[in-house]
């Protein structure tokens, strides 16, 4: 049972990576949907109605932290929980900063004030999963630390 628990953290990070392929934001103007962007679209940039959108640095960093977290979860010492918690916290902060940096979605339009950006299920799941990663790894570290003291 204890051996199977070591796959929980990498699995959570893997789910985060998968969620980056789900819709993160929907851009609409006067009720007409212009684009739906996944986390990968935000991280790498995408053309919207002929205009190239710049990559969102924080989305790219959050994706990279999730990928690194998959591998960090397989470290074989007690520090893997701390490392995974730090990586998860960094990813969480990057995801929160996506909203503040959403200005990178610039569509040249005379109706720029009419644009509406809605946050979608992919972004919500990524936030929740990063929180789960941090909490799980901190609890695991605490429990493992107490087991080591008892021995």
TrEMBL record:
Keywords: Membrane, Transmembrane, Transmembrane helix. The chain crosses the membrane at residues 55-75, 82-99, 119-139. PROSITE patterns: PROKAR_LIPOPROTEIN (PS51257). It comes from the Bacteria. This is Uncharacterized protein. The lineage of its organism: Bacteria, Bacillati, Bacillota, Clostridia, Eubacteriales.
């Amino acid at each position: 049972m204890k051996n199977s628990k070591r796959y929980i953290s990498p699995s959570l990070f893997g789910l985060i990576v998968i969620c980056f392929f789900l819709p993160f934001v929907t851009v609409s103007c006067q009720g007409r949907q212009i684009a739906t962007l996944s986390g990968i679209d935000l991280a790498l940039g995408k053309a919207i109605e002929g205009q190239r959108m710049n990559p969102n640095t924080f989305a790219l960093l959050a994706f990279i932290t999730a990928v690194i977290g998959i591998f960090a979860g397989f470290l074989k010492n007690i520090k893997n929980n701390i490392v995974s918690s730090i990586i998860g916290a960094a990813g969480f902060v990057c995801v929160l900063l996506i909203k503040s940096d959403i200005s990178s979605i610039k569509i040249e339009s005379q109706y720029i004030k009419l644009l509406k950006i809605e946050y979608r299920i992919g972004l919500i799941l990524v936030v929740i999963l990063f929180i789960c990663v941090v909490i799980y790894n901190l609890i695991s570290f605490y429990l493992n630390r107490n087991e080591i003291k008892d021995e």
